[in-house]
Amino acid sequence: MNLDSAHMGSITSRAVWFLLAVILGSVAALFSVQAYRAFTSKNWPVTNGVVVAFYETPQYRYSVGGRTYTNGVASCNEFWSSYVAIRNSSKYAVRYPLNGTVKVHYHPKKPELAVLETQFDSSVLLPIGGMLFFGLICFLGFLFGWPLGSRSSLSWLRETASILGNATLDVEGQEGFRNKRETDP
C-alpha cells in the first residue's frame, strides 16, 4: 500500500488534534472533579477537630465513625489549587491557632477528604471552560481532519463551514461566513 504525503499529513494532523483533545479533556475532567468536590463541601457532614500542627496550613485531627484522621486542607479551594494554601497561610495562622478547636467538613463517603472552609471560589470555572472549549476545537480538528501549519489555504475551514451550517466562507473578500441562501440565486 502506497500512501502519498498528503494522506500521511492528514493522518498526522488527525493524530495531533486527537492527542490535544484527549489531554485538554483529561485535565479539564480532573479540575472539574476537584471543583465539584470544593463546591459540594458546604453540604458535607461536620465534626469537631483540633489543630495539632501548622505547616503553611493547619494540620488538624478529627474522628469519624470511630476512626481518627489528620488532614491539612484548610480551604475547599485547595483541592484544585495548592497556591491557595500558600497565599492564605498567614490568615490561617491567625484563624486556626495550635490546639484550637475547629469545625471539620468531611466527605461522607471518603472521610479522609476534609476541609475547614467551604467558601467556593468560582474563578476555577473559567480555566475549566477554556480547556473544554479548546478541547472541543481540537476534537473538531480531529473529526474534520484540519491540517496543521497550513495557513496559506483555508479550504479546510470552508469545507467545515459548509458541513456545519450549509454556509460558505468568502476567503478572498475576507468578509467571513455568509449563508448560502443569501449568495445563491
Could you describe the 3D structure shown?
The protein is 45% helix and 21% strand. With 185 residues, it is an alpha+beta fold. Among the domains are: 73 residues, OB fold (Dihydrolipoamide Acetyltransferase, E2P), CATH 2.40.50; 36 residues, no CATH class. It has a five-stranded antiparallel sheet with strand order 3-2-1-4-5. About 4% of the residues have low confidence.
Shape: elongated
Number of strands: 7
Helix content: 40-55%
Q: Classify the fold: give the CATH topology of the domain at 45-117.
A: OB fold (Dihydrolipoamide Acetyltransferase, E2P)
Low-confidence stretches: 171-177
Which structural class fits the helix and strand makeup?
alpha+beta
Question: What proportion strand?
Answer: 15-25%
- How are the strands ordered across the major sheet? 3-2-1-4-5
Order of helices and strands: HEEEHEEHHEEH
> What summary fits the major beta sheet?
5 strands, antiparallel
| Rg for CA atoms | 26 Å
Number of helices: 5
End-to-end distance: 45 Å
User: What is the CATH architecture descriptor of the domain at 45-117?
Assistant: Beta Barrel
For the record, what CATH class of the domain at 45-117 applies? Mainly Beta
Please state the average pLDDT score.
Answer: 80
List the topology elements.
Elements: H1 5-40, E1 46-55, E2 57-64, E3 67-71, H2 83-95, E4 101-106, E5 114-115, H3 125-144, H4 155-165, E6 167-170, E7 176-179, H5 180-183
